[in-house]
Structure formats: structure tokens, C-alpha cells
Amino acid sequence: MAKKLKGQTLIFSNPPQIIGHTSVVGPEEKKGPYGKDFDFAYQDVKCGKDSWEKGEKQMASDALKGAMDKAGLDPSDVNLILGGDLLDEIITADYVARDQDIPFLGLYSACAIMVEALGLGAALMDGGFADCVLAFASSDYQTAERQYRNPIEYGAQYPPYKQYTVTGAAAYALGWLGGQTWITHFTAGKVLDLGVKDPNNMGSAMAPAAADTILQHFADLERGLPDYDLILSGDLGKMGKKMLLSLLQEKNLNPGKKLQDCGALIFGGKEKYGAGGSGAGASGVMLGNVFIPKIIKGEINRILLVGTGALLSPLTIQQGESIPGIAHAVVVEKITGG
Amino acid sequence: MAKKLKGQTLIFSNPPQIIGHTSVVGPEEKKGPYGKDFDFAYQDVKCGKDSWEKGEKQMASDALKGAMDKAGLDPSDVNLILGGDLLDEIITADYVARDQDIPFLGLYSACAIMVEALGLGAALMDGGFADCVLAFASSDYQTAERQYRNPIEYGAQYPPYKQYTVTGAAAYALGWLGGQTWITHFTAGKVLDLGVKDPNNMGSAMAPAAADTILQHFADLERGLPDYDLILSGDLGKMGKKMLLSLLQEKNLNPGKKLQDCGALIFGGKEKYGAGGSGAGASGVMLGNVFIPKIIKGEINRILLVGTGALLSPLTIQQGESIPGIAHAVVVEKITGG
After folding, report:
1. Distance from the CA of A240 to the CA of which of A3, A122, B9, B67 falls in 20 to 30 A?
2. Domain residues for B294?
3. Other CB atoms within 10 A of residue A27 CB
């Protein structure tokens, strides 16, 4: 039997460290309660480029370069880049990787990409296949609206439970030395579908997958809520977080304030942003610049980061399909003693 | 230093076996010279469904089920599914995975997905994270034309060097026992861009990446052409294969007939199919049902399978971007003696 697998959870015997990370966001995220925490915020939604897509690419490139700089890495130090984004054919990530002389593995799991990249990257390191990897993900309000719903110029009206895609890119460098947090476990999730068909209600489409992955993670490791200081979901928003809470309560788990959602937090709950943020960048920028600092300061110690993805395309919605969800989780913690 | 990495090549110390594989194709592929070799061919391009996309999903589901059946696997035996396809948001793979009670990692590298899935799956097994994985990929002429170019009803005229997307799905089960071929190495490729902007000329966009990955693989392992019975590229087509040959010749490598291309072969060179086949399904169906049987019969022993992906989206073409390429490679061979 696979020595480092229990159920769906990969257990790292030599957990890699996060040796550098960078978050780049847009103007709306800068205005939010965590605005001052991010490494850099563009005031221009196109990041000085002539299209939204080129702007998103700029943001993701900046994040990747920032993570390498903070970790003191040259491209030749990095064995592998793993990443993706929400655009068709993960074209942001493809073009960011084009500028790097480093092998690239493209991933797609919608807004769970950041966690998929961290988990797979850590597994490849623990397995002896790499000493240093970069994991990155991005999302962008303008590019996502145009692709998934309507170009923002149309001024389409949306229901209040719709989420607002986070304009943000995050990159993480994983290595063996010099970090203050470790990635110790990766729980890969299943695709679940409870029949949600409204593409404005992605939080509800993703919540069942989040619940399933959290419960599976606890079962695999014989752990429970007391073992974690924070269960941090990616981008369920207010609606999806509420549903996740009630799904966990059905299993007699009451996380209370131990459950936080990056999407619900990032815009401070303002009405303009509907049910809160979404997007592959949301969990990345919040983990790195809001919660990892809390670990480093000793305020918390162990986080279960649950990336949540809604697996839809405009075509599947037009064809009347429902929206499956997926959730992948990694444990981010400070390893002390030993 | 990472024990199982040389340059860009992951070296498996316990190479996983291919314990079952299945190829499902469409009517055009059935008419080709390898038509009788595939496990199943649909005569209806929608595979009995009411849309092309649902047809592609049916084909990919059949391949996955076929691979599990041939390997004698229940879903509970499988630790992980890895896969993807050419559709936006890899929606074929997402919906196929939804029907399985197995964790899923979505991948995207265009037509290199099959090799990315085989390589990553094998690495996770060798690393101690899984005992059994499924790797799959699909493509479909109808769904790809509609998404990347024009719906086929428009009857658009194309240049003779355009490739014809293979309607095909392939799935592989990797395990430890009962197979007759092994995956021993995985070389992850870089994203390369020599400036090709014509989306009908993807073979030329991918050839530089294929050459780079082949040369890197040889350098990493201190190997050369004599060490392989076949260099099998994914879907360069006639044009791309010609360019790859000339790029290799510049480095004094003359593979001659040792270099074959799944795309150039699958339709037998008929004019109707332009420069030959393309698509994420091409390499999968040809490896499993044409070349692995040759290994099993003892006609050849070691293949370097080079999956080639063109990283474009309709949007990037509209925005005047060039088309980067990527190539990932795995070594598929029969391990004898020991």
C-alpha cells in the first residue's frame, strides 16, 4: 500500500516549506479591509496594459517574480512551475510560464487551482522529484465577467447573492530552507454535483464539495476541529459559507468562527460585492498575506486551506447542465520542536 | 538535491505499470489505417447524445470505464484520476470525473494532457502517494472546431496544412501488478514560443517545444537515439513533424523512421485531413492501441512518447498573440530481466 496515502490524503514525510510568497491585487481589493496587507495593488484594472487579459498576465507575472525575489531564487534554482487561472485554456498561466525558462505543469480546477498547485508541488518535492517549485494562480474581475457572464460594459444586473471575482494573483515558492511555514498534507477532492444550475450561485455549488473534503480529511487523519486553528475555505462567499456551516453541523461539527472564507472576508462584506469575492486568486492572496503572517506571529498555528472550484463553462450553462464543485485541501502549519 | 530528478527528468525508482488502457474513437478514425486497432468506434459523431459536447463526454467515460474493466478495477481500488481535454474549463474531464467517486486532479496543457497525466500519475505512485491511478484525455473534431475556429456548419475553407482534430478518448490505469509495460521517466517541458500566429499551423507552433524536450531528455539521462526504438510525438502532423526533424538535424540527430507522429499517422495521410490529426486524444489512442501492442509482441522495446500542446485560445488569437507550445515526455518500455 502507498506509504504516504491515507484515504484521500497525501501525508508528507519531508514537508516542504513556503520560502517566499507574493500577492498582487487590483483597486477594489486594495479598498477592502486587507488592502494594506497585500504586496502590491494596481490602481488601473488593466495594470497599464491594453487589454484586461494582458493586465491579468502582468499581475500574475509580478506575483511569480515577487515570490522568487522574496525567496532569493534565480530561475535556475526552480525545478518546476505549477499553476493555472480561470481563463479558457489557462491562457494567463501559459503566457506567464512562457516568460520563464522553467518546466511548467498547467492545472485546472477553477478556483481550487491555488491549492491543487500547492498540494501537487509539495507532493513532487516530498517524493524526491524537485527541490524547489513555484505554485501560482490568478483571477480577474474584468476577464472573468467577460468570459463567464457578460462584458462589464453591458451593465448586467445580478442577484445579491452573486459573487464578485477577485482581481488578484498569488505565487508561492516552496523549498527546504528558510521558510517559517510548512505544507504537511494534501487532500485531493472528488467532483460533487447537487444540481445547482444558477451560475451566479457558485458558492452553493461548491459548498458540498468543501464539506466532503473537510470531513474526508478529518477521517483520513483521525482529526477534528480541535486539531486546527482555522478552516479557511477559498471562495464560497457568504451564501456558500452558510451552506458549508450547515452541512458540517449535520455531521455534528460546529466550527463557529474557526471557519472563515477568503471570499467572504476580502471585500469586508460590502453590498456592492454581493456575497463576497470569488476567483482562483482569492485564497492565494488571503492565505499568504493575511493568515500566514498570523502563523508567523504565533497567533495561530495550523490552517486547513480548502480551495473550492465551480466546474462550469458558459457552454455547459447554455446546455442546461448543472454546476459540479470540487475542493482540494492543504494543511499549512508551523512545525515546532522536533 | 532531489534524488529522482535529473535536469527536467523525473526518474522513477519503482516504475508503475500500465495495467489497462482503452481507446474510443469516432467514425473518421475508424476509417483510417488503424481503425481496426481501437477498442471501440462510434459511427455517430455525437455518440448518441444530443450535443457534440455530451458525445465527447460519453466517449471519455467509455474509455475510463474500459480501462478500469480491463485492469479489473473497482472505483474503490483507484486512488486518483488525472486528466483533461481541449474544451474550455476542461469540461469534458470535469463531467466524466463527476460520475466517479474518486478524487480528481484536472490538468491542462492542450494536446500534451495525456502525457502530463501519465507522467504526474506515475510520479505520485513512485512517490508513495498512490497505488493506482487513472489517466485520461479526450478531443473531438466537432467540439474543437466550434470552440477554436468555426462551427463546422459554416463550411469554412482552411489551408492544406491545417490539422484535423482527432475524435478520440484514451484512458490508462496505472498499477503495480499485471501490466506488460512500464512508465519509467517523465520529462516536464518548458513553454516555448517562436512567434507562430496562424492557429491553423499548430504543428509548427509545437515543434520547437518537442525538439527542446527531446534534447533535454537525452541530455538529462545521457542517452541518444540508439537508446530508443521509437520517438513518438503527439500531434505535430506532417508539417510539424518535418520541422521537428529539421530542428533535430540541426543538433546532428537524424532519427529517420524512428520518429513517428501520432497525428501524421492516424488518418493515413489522406488529403481530406490536411496535415493529419491533432488533439489531446491522438497520442493516447495511438500509444495504447497501436504502439503498446508492438512492445508486448516484442517488436519494439522502448518508446519516448512526446505529448505536444499548442497553448492558444480564440481570445489570444483575436488579440494578436502568438501561439506558444509545450511538450512533455514519458518513457514507456518493457522492463525485462532484473
Report:
1. A122
2. 181-333
3. 14
Contact residues, B window 111-150, toward A, CB-based 8 Å cutoff: 116, 120, 123-131, 147
Are residues B111 and B241 located together in one domain of the fold?
no
Q: Indicate if A202 and A137 belong to the same structural domain.
A: no
CB contact under 8 A, A95 and B324: yes
Q: Which of residues 49-88 of B touch A (CB under 8 A)?
A: 51, 53-54, 79-80, 84, 87-88
Length of chain B: 338
Amino acid at A215: L
Diameter of chain A measured on Cα atoms: 58
Q: Name residue A173's beta-bridge partners.
A: A20, A134
pLDDT digits (tens, 9 = 90+) for B191-241: 999 999 998 889 999 999 999 999 999 999 999 999 999 999 999 999 999
Pairs of residues, one from chain A and one from chain B, whose beta carbons lie less than 8 Å apart: 189
**If you ran DSSP here, which 8-state letter would residue A185 be given?**
E
Domain count, chain B: 2
Among A5, A87, A92, A94, pick the best mutation site for testing chain B contact (most B Cβ within 10 A). Answer: A94
**Is the pTM value of this prediction over 0.95?**
yes
Q: Does A110 touch chain B (CB under 8 A)?
A: yes
How far off is chain A from B53, nearest CA to CA, in Å? 9
Q: One-letter amino acid identity for B86? A: L
Q: How far is CA B94 from the centre of its chain?
A: 18
The residues, ordered by sequence, that sit 6+ positions from B260 with a Cβ below 8 Å of its Cβ are: B230, B231, B232, B233
Cell 452541512 belongs to which residue? Answer: A247
The domain spanning residue A318 has which CATH number? 3.40.47.40
| Contact call for B53 and A80, based on CB within 8 A | no
Residue B190 and residue B141 in one domain: no
Per the CB < 8 A criterion, the answer to whether B45 and B142 are in contact is yes
The span from the CA of A175 to the CA of A105, in Å, is: 18
Measured distance CA(B24)–CA(B229) in Å, rounded: 26
Rounded mean pLDDT, B21-39? 98
Boundary residue ending a domain (B103, B130, B148) = B148
pLDDT band at B337 (very low <50, low <70, confident <90, very high): low
**B131 contact residues in A (CB cutoff 8 A):** 1-2, 5
Question: Using one digit for the tens of pLDDT, what is the confidence trace for B270-296?
Answer: 999 999 999 999 999 999 999 999 999
Residues A240 and A129 in one domain: no
What's the sign of the alpha-carbon dihedral B283, B288, B293, B295? Answer: positive
**Which of A105, A130, A148 is the endpoint of a domain?**
A148
Query: Which residue is associated with the grid cell 496587507?
Result: A37
- ipTM for the predicted complex comes to 0.98
- With CA atoms as reference, the chain A residue closest to B94 would be A311
* B36 reaches A (C-beta below 8 A): no
CB B207 within 8 A of CB B59: no
Query: Does A316 reach chain B within 8 Å, measured CB to CB?
Result: yes
pLDDT tens-digit map of B111-165: 999 999 999 999 999 999 999 999 999 999 999 999 998 888 898 888 988 999 9
Sign of the Cα pseudo-torsion (B40, B45, B50, B51, in order)? positive
Q: State whether residue B40 sits within 8 Å of chain A by CB.
A: no
Q: Which of A276, A259, A140, A256 is nearest to A202 (CA)?
A: A276
Nearest CA in chain A to B6: A129
Beta bridge partners of B24: B40, B169
From chain A, the residues in CB contact with B190 under 8 A are: 97, 100-104
Whether B139 is in a domain gets the answer yes
